[in-house]
Structure to design on (95 residues):
């Protein structure tokens, strides 16, 4: 049995845009047959929560060299580049 991967969604407050993005990604990837564990946090908390996550999706810039894949995007808020962002997320979760 394959371990379900975990995605950490981050934004400035850990509440607003990360919630919107987490729901948008979960809905879109469900249509692609992918499920994952989702968590949310503030950008300032990412470094302390990264150990057990497989991917970080953020709406704000994060520190470099977190040691995990990071996708920083506003695509789920603007709609611009959403398909490309989903493809990148899917690729990480299927790896």
């Amino acid at each position: 049995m394959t371990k379900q991967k975990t995605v950490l969604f981050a934004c400035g407050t850990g509440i607003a845009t990360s919630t919107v993005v987490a729901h948008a990604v979960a809905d879109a990837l469900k249509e692609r047959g992918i499920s994952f564990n989702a968590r949310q946090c503030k950008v300032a908390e990412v470094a302390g929560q990264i150990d057990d996550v497989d991917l970080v999706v953020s709406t704000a810039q994060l520190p470099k060299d977190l040691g995990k894949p990071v996708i920083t995007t506003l695509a789920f808020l603007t709609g611009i580049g959403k398909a490309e962002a989903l493809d990148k997320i899917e690729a990480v979760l299927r790896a």
